[in-house]
Design brief:
The complex is a heterodimer. By secondary structure, chain A is mainly β. In chain A, 0% of the residues lie in helices and 48% in strands. Chain A is built from no helices and eleven strands. Chain A has strands spanning 4-7, 10-13, 19-25, 31-37, 43-49, 56-57, 65-67, 73-78, 87-94, 104-105, 109-113. The model of chain A has no long low-confidence stretch (mean pLDDT 94). Chain B has no helices and eleven strands. In chain B, the strands form two sheets. In chain B, strands 2, 4, 5, 9, 10 and 11 form a six-stranded mixed beta sheet that branches. A five-stranded antiparallel beta sheet of chain B has the order 1-3-8-7-6, with no helix packed on it. The termini of chain B are far apart. Classes of the chains: A mainly beta, B mainly beta. At the A-B interface, strand 4, strand 5, strand 9 and strand 10 of A face strand 4, strand 5 and strand 10 of B.
């Protein structure tokens, strides 16, 4: 099993450009999450999904959109990138429910917005 | 909403010594408290977790304690080794709210040989 994979690994954008980050998991997990990691601030939840076709806002959702059209994929979109969105983005997934809380993380996408 | 504070931000110990990292949380409804280890250039990986109905949990050299009354929990690493050097994150979650984790700011642990 590949676990959680993220595409691309690195990307440089200019202010105002758009892009989509792809997260895929092969563990048949119900729940999926997008976090951003900035120095000294830990990981902050952007959006999450508790099942195919569902999405919900996290702590810092502004400027991002997400879609979960297939159970195994969770897409994060930036419609008009800003320098404040320069960060490392992590996707995670979990089985969900009361007793299966462990989140498995992908390797991250490093995004720079100039 | 939930807020998690983590201390210290950096910690340096000699190989063989113990390391302790502390976290406090604000939401009394939180009931799941995991600890993640992040090595350079990689995603975080779960090392131990504890639920609100347990006060302490141990796994070899790693232990976590939880004080629900004071709303704080701690990670204890004994007999530290150079490979324990990494960034450690605590987190809090309420499994009734989609399992979303609220993370602390992280502790960079350095174990000197």
């Amino acid at each position: 099993n590949a676990g959680v994979t993220q595409t691309p690994k690195f990307r440089v954008l200019k202010t105002g450009q758009s892009m989509t980050l792809l997260c895929a998991q092969d563990m048949n997990h119900e729940y999926m999450y997008w976090y951003r990691q900035d120095p000294g601030m830990g990981l902050r939840l952007i959006h999450y999904s508790v099942g195919e076709g569902t999405t919900a806002k996290g702590e810092v959702p502004d400027g991002y959109n997400v879609s979960r059209l297939k159970k195994q994929n969770f897409l994060l979109g930036l419609e008009s990138a800003a320098p404040s969105q320069t960060s490392v983005y992590f996707c995670a997934s979990s089985y969900g429910g009361v007793y299966y809380n462990e989140q498995f993380f992908g390797p991250g996408t490093r995004l720079t917005v100039l | 909403g939930e807020n998690v504070e983590q201390h210290p931000s950096t910690l340096s110990v000699q190989e063989g010594d113990s390391a302790v990292i502390k976290c406090t949380y604000s939401d009394s409804a939180s009931n799941y408290f995991p600890w993640y280890k992040q090595e350079l250039g990689k995603g975080p990986q779960l090392i131990i977790d504890i639920r609100s109905n347990v006060g302490e949990k141990k796994d070899q050299r790693i232990a976590v304690t939880l004080n629900k009354t004071a709303k704080h929990f701690s990670l204890h690493i004994t007999e530290t080794q150079p490979e324990d050097s990494a960034v450690y994150f605590c987190a809090a979650s309420n499994h009734n709210q989609g399992g979303k984790l609220i993370f602390g700011q992280g502790t960079e642990l350095s174990v000197k040989p």
